[in-house]
Design brief:
Elements lengths: L5 H8 L1 H19 L5 H8 L3 H8 L1 H20 L1 H21 L3 H33 L4 H24 L4 H20 L23 H4 L2 H29 L6 H4 L1 H23 L2 H22 L2 H15 L2 H9 L7 H29 L2 H4 L2 H15 L8
Helix pairs in contact: 2-6, 2-7, 2-8, 2-9, 4-7, 5-6, 5-7, 5-17, 6-7, 6-9, 7-17, 8-13, 8-16, 11-13, 11-15, 11-16, 11-17, 11-19, 13-15, 14-15, 14-19, 16-17
Length: about 400
């Protein structure tokens, strides 16, 4: 018979580390999403054209990807707890600089710095999430990512409110960042040390000091490909949902914004349910089914071509993609012979590259054909996700 005291004891041991990880995921989404409503004001303050703004906006993803690669070397030595605490300071401090930028070079530099801390915080908080999940002994990653999604909702609402009352981006990020930093630092002091991987590999090297070659093993590449496909679809949805509804579907301005809203809402709901789902069923029995729903629903939405069908299609896509990134991050953190941080960095970098590549890829295909045909790439990639999550050995975990 199982020891009934084990479950409550495990829950008590990770109560504060879990609360700290929830808080950091929420803060990460809150601060970055809060700036999106201010983009037109930032553009005007810097005196940029639309093309120059597009170039400046590349600073954030470029900084994130660059920092993730550096984090691969720092995480095994520093540990996720120190990385989270340090990156949280930089993330909260660099944000207000974006609102002060008065030219293309300064805006690109400010976004690059902010994006660098954002990317480093992303991989370190996911590494800590793996440690908490292991200590708790049950799936938790989906819930952490749900908190990030809730943070983005709160941040977007704060940004809209700030613009409505005439508050500048720098002031808003200071008002949000100072309490976030105080709370985040207080809670993150209770985070767990990274653990759960073998102390020594077969060649005598420690698991906390992986060889570079193993960082790009077949398992990492497969998980990275799944993350790439998922984040490419997410980036395409974020940038093209309203354009598709407003253009080819001929929806009104108010309705056009509902596509990505429906996607985000169903993603939050699915992630909030994800811990329970993955606690009862195995990954290959959950993710392929959700991906199949997304593939069928999004394809039907494109085929029907009405506003309601398109919104329903994006809602199905949110359901299908919600658990993909949390699950592959959790699986990466369990790979033998690699520290969780190094594996998560590699997989997260692939995901970010997909997010960056998605919008321009859809745009190029739309220019060559049409936007509905270009968006046909999305269900193809979702079908790949369904197949890959069903067959990848690293995802065949127990309940």
């Amino acid at each position: 018979m199982p020891d009934l005291a084990v479950e409550p004891r495990a829950a008590l041991q990770v109560r504060w580390p879990r609360a700290a990880t929830v808080a950091v995921f929420f803060i990460h989404g809150l601060l970055f999403a809060s700036w999106t409503a201010h983009i037109p004001q930032v553009k005007e303050h810097a005196g940029l054209t639309v093309g120059a703004l597009g170039l400046a906006l590349l600073g954030a993803p470029a900084g994130s990807v660059s920092a993730m690669l550096v984090s691969a070397k720092l995480l095994p030595g520093l540990g996720s707890r120190r990385m989270v605490r340090g990156c949280l300071v930089g993330y909260c401090a660099a944000g207000p600089l974006v609102g002060l930028a008065g030219s293309l070079p300064t805006l690109f530099a400010a976004l690059f710095a902010w994006g660098a801390f954002q990317g480093s915080l992303d991989v370190s908080m996911n590494t800590q999430a793996v440690a908490v999940e292991r200590a708790r002994g049950r799936p938790l990653m989906s819930g952490f990512h749900a908190c990030w999604s809730i943070g983005t909702f709160a941040g977007a609402a704060a940004g809209v409110a700030g613009v409505a009352i005439g508050m500048s981006l720098s002031v808003q990020l200071l008002l949000l960042g100072v309490p976030a930093l105080v709370i985040g630092q207080a809670l993150s002091a209770r985070m767990l040390p990274d653990s759960g991987h073998p102390a020594e590999t077969t060649d005598g090297t420690t698991a906390g000091q992986p060889r570079p070659a193993r960082r790009f093993s077949r398992a990492v590449l497969i998980l990275g490909a799944i993350a790439f496909a998922s984040m490419l679809c997410e980036g395409a949805s974020a940038d093209w949902a309203s354009v598709y509804l407003r253009g080819p579907v001929h929806a009104g301005a108010a309705v056009a914004g509902l596509g990505y809203t429906a996607y985000s809402l169903t993603m939050v709901i699915a992630r909030l349910s994800g811990n329970r789902l993955l606690g009862r069923f195995t990954v290959p029995s959950v993710l392929p089914v959700l991906a199949a729903v997304a593939c069928a629903g999004f394809t039907a939405g494109l085929a029907v071509g009405t506003g309601a069908a398109a919104i329903a299609g994006f809602a199905c896509l949110g359901i299908g993609l919600a658990l993909v990134v949390p699950t592959v991050n959790s699986a990466a953190g369990r790979l033998p012979g690699l520290s969780p941080g190094a594996a998560i960095v590699a997989v997260s970098t692939c995901g970010w590259l997909g997010f960056v590549c998605g919008p321009p890829l859809i745009g190029a295909l739309a220019s060559a054909t049409s936007l509905p045909l270009a968006l046909g790439v999305v269900p193809v990639l979702v079908a790949f996700i369904a197949l890959a999550t069903a067959l990848t050995p690293q995802l065949r975990t127990g309940r």
